[in-house]
Protein: Outer membrane usher protein FimD
Organism: Aquimixticola soesokkakensis
Amino acid sequence: MTSTFSNPRAGAVRRKAGMIALGAILTLPLANGLAAQDLDAVTRGGSGLEASASITGMGALSGDRVPLFLAVSINGKDTNLVAEFSGRLDGSDLRSTSDELQDVGLRIPGSIAQKIIAGQILDSEIALSEFEGLTYVYDSDAQRVLITAPDAALLPHVISASGLTSPQAADHATGAVLNYALTGAHYAPLDGALVGSTTLAGSFEGWIYSPYGTLSSTGFYSQTLRSGASDTGTPSFVRQETAFTKDFADKAMTLTIGDYSTQGPDWTRSVRLGGLAVSRNFSLRSDLVTDQRLSYSGAAAVPSSVDVFIENNRIYSGEVDEGPFRLEDLPVKTGAGDAEVVIQGADGRVRHETVSFFNSGNLMKAGMIDYSLAAGRARQAFGLESAQYGDSTILSGSLRYGVTPLVTVDGHFEASDTLKMAGAGLTAVPLALGELSIAAAASDYDGTSGGFVEMGMHTQIGMVDINAKASRSDGGFADLAYVTGVNYLGADTLASSGSLLEVPLAQDVLSIGIPVTREQRKLGLSYVRSERENSADRLVAASYGTTFNSGRGAFSMSGSYNLDTDESQMSFGMSLKLGAKTFARATSSSDEAGGTSRELSVSRTMGSDVGDWGYQGQVSLDDGATSFGAKGEYRASLAEFAAGLQRSEDGYYIEGQVDGALVLTGGALALGGRIEDSFAVVDTGVADMPIYLQNREVARTGRSGRALVPGLNSYASNRVSVEVSDLPMPVSMGVTAMDVVPARRTGALVDFKGENTAAGVMVVLRDARGQVVPAGAPVTVNGKSAAAFVGYDGQTWIAAAKASNQLEVGGATPCHASFAFAPTGALQEVVDPVECL
């Protein structure tokens, strides 16, 4: 007996085929090989025996239990699963483990779970008779059990509305990438007594990738040349970050050795360190939904269609079978709302249900876990020094877990030789009314203890959006951001400067968003209070914004007032859409000191297609001083180019910039646009040929016949192709499209290099008298024997004609011919006559 396994439900039975076959072989003779036996199907239920079995010739079966490996059918539908049961030979008193029963789709009721906990039922011996309303039929001949169960006894069929597909196995190649941004700038003062200057700068990001991991580094170079001076500025290069990373896509985890920024909940602060880190990386798994979204649970009596609407917009449409189901991961906006669920059965009956929700955006999906753990030494003087680290080892760790669809918890700790800090937090959405969050932490820094607490709330009352957050700490609370700052700058420097590295003693934020009308007009009000050891600020602000009809423009205004310093500011802004990519903008701002700033600009946004361009022109008036500027951008296949000019009352500033990437993969070198994730190098062997990504032209090959195609999605299929119609006449390609699945930040070589063959031509072979050569004679073409045969009327097809061709004709009257050929572009190339002598 063979059993075929499938997995229609999460956690389906995964039993080895050999075990199933062995169990079936051992059990089948016992059940069917009894002499003089006539065994009817036995029906069992929650109340005991419902239909008796008649057995002739043997009397009652013994009460011994035997293992049974049975195919399972529930409510008339085959599950395509085989489960292990134990029972008597007549099929009565079938039992199985809770895991096995859940795998085939049965829900373990709370009453049974309580009996298991109390020891009244062993977990390995849950009887089907324990399920209220469940009946079953044991079919010994087919070795299957036919279960009939109410919806309450079934696990729901889980359907994800995300539409996300499982990531594909990636091709792990070896290669290197160098992103660069080169800038040259010159300042020319209008005052001849002043000396102008020229500045050269470059920003670089490079990495080497292989199946074993990726080694990356970033840094920047700068040098100032003073015109009119004999000496030049000293060139400098500052390394920023260097790290080796290894991705484990199946576990959504990344290992980092080198420079790293710590992670943590919203109430913590990040620090840079050099060391070792292990963290979840959900970007490696495109199939995972990590945030808690709207879900709906229901049941269908017959196969039905399910549609979900929000504000009359359909956000989901699908089909369900009869029985319980749960629809998860419904995409909804952040905040409160109502969803209407419409279920229409195959029998024509329609059911409507309204579901209220509050989507916080800060809850992890139930059962999902996020973590990070890092150890190393604090990075100091980042951006100023290339390799300056602290003397002490620091530790940082965080954990977030979705406990239920409405509750997420988190924990965090930090430690060094002088600091120990730990805390925990909770985020919840009670009764779809809003989001509540609370966090608390305690620390001990150099013998001084301190505490921290934070509470937050986000809700909607009608159309009014309200956000509030308040935190308090005592003077002794510290974290790694403060401690590493003290170690580098010194405590006295921090205390005297009012640095933001200090943990606020009190911080309150309140913001209210009020819709003014049904059109996109909104009034915003906010209050911010922050208090530190040596500074305090209280700020109130208001803003108003609206969009014009059909998205043709927008208007905004805002103002703020500092209650402690009496400083105020007011600003206005308006934008108009002049075309698909062209906009005009005007802004104006002023403060209490009488300072004013006004600006008018016109710009065109540069798109992502090769050959696209953009520009910006602006005129500014700052406190009576006028300045203007202009900038142009162009996206070429090899790089992006930009040039700009700025004139102020002091002088001229001219700047040029080139952004691009140099890559090496599969032994092929290519230039192109900046690489952010994954890419492909396409080799066609043909210059100036369009390259398509997902059927959209994204690059053109250079003189080498190669093109760099950035923008590929890692761990997903990317269709890279060329069009046959773009090929020049003498070139043919066996393959014109390939699906590429690169790993994160890696590249692939796509080789479309065709065979540069001459076009085919029909020649008419004639002898010296002009008579056609007899049909059927073999022809050797350019040394290749039997490459063609003479046809009727001397017509001979030469499939791969060259500029100069030699023919040897065999048969009864052998002869030799030669002819020159140049394609004319005709639908059928013909050369007549070709003398064969």
The two ends are 75 Å apart (CA to CA). The chain has a mean pLDDT of 86. The longest helix spans residues 17-32.
